[in-house]
Amino acid sequence: MLEDKFGRRFHYLRLSITDVCNFSCTYCLPDGYACDSDRDFLSVAEIATIVQTFAQLGTSKVRITGGEPSLRKDLPQIIAQCAATPGIEHVAMTSNGYKLDKCVEQWVDAGLDSINISIDSLDPRMFASITGHDSLDSILAGIEKGLTLGLKVKVNAVLMRQYNEKEFNGFLEWVKSSPISLRLIELMQTGDNQPFFQQNHVSAEPLKNQLLQSGWCQVIRGKAAGPAQEFYHPDYAGKIGLIMPYSKDFCASCNRLRISATGKLHLCLFAEQGLDIRRYISAGDEAGLRQELISLLGDKEATHWLQEGLTGATKHLAMLGG
Ligand code: SAM
Ligand code: SF4
Question: Domains in the chain and their CATH numbers?
Fold first, then answer.
């Protein structure tokens, strides 16, 4: 089992398969994707080596992310590879939903069991102004299709003062009738978005108080759960999760490690650097990779330093998948 010196166990791998994206979200890639780095992304065979090795070390859940993972043509093979790995019980993906309506059936057939779709606004014009794409209707249709196929659907929305702060009640109304789990994420500062962060960061603490005062109850966290504090209400079909990276003890329940699209291990989303493990991955050397992962985990720090404004090597989250 992968365990660090603070007793945290790592059941959950977030695997980026590309850093390319077709959207230009205001807080992430406001000028769109710029090809300024190495694009030698992990192959399906390399992904198989990574996932098998992590599974041997106790990982039970893989989340495929990016950039935009659905831009990779071999995505169904990647999903199938993860799903076929002994020990992997959950295969999830995070996507902007651009290809959801067209491809969701193929992804479910390949073994995807849950998906997080980013929808920062339910107002089509606001959605377009945040993402640069007028595709809200097609994404919502894709979600409906996913639900009918039995896919577990979560929706991620980043809270922003100047954009969607007033939409909380609209989101709640949606969750009343739809069995989705809505994640409201506090905007995080990254290397590239500092002025935007200063103008737009909104704390989720008042929303948590509002939920608790209106009959929502907190869900007990499972071992492979994400970082959200989750809430349910008997009158609502869906759930609400709050992701509050600036809250005290956020890192105490960390259960995930990250691999970048070029095969670097990131011990934290905001680590100072990615650690190069590609030589083991490319050689298919699972024993060597196991030893290296155990040894590198010794350097994982107790917490990120976001409160101090230190964002490590992370210019934007498209680099690593959030
Ligand atoms: N392109 C996919 C998508 O948007 O869902 C996957 C990658 S994206 C980096 C993963 C998640 O990170 C998305 O839900 C996105 O909204 C969120 N995200 C990106 N930048 C962020 C930031 N600075 N603060 C908080 N969340 C952020
Ligand atoms: Fe692309 Fe996702 Fe970043 Fe938006 S948040 S620009 S969809 S990687």
Answer: 12-319 (3.20.20.70)
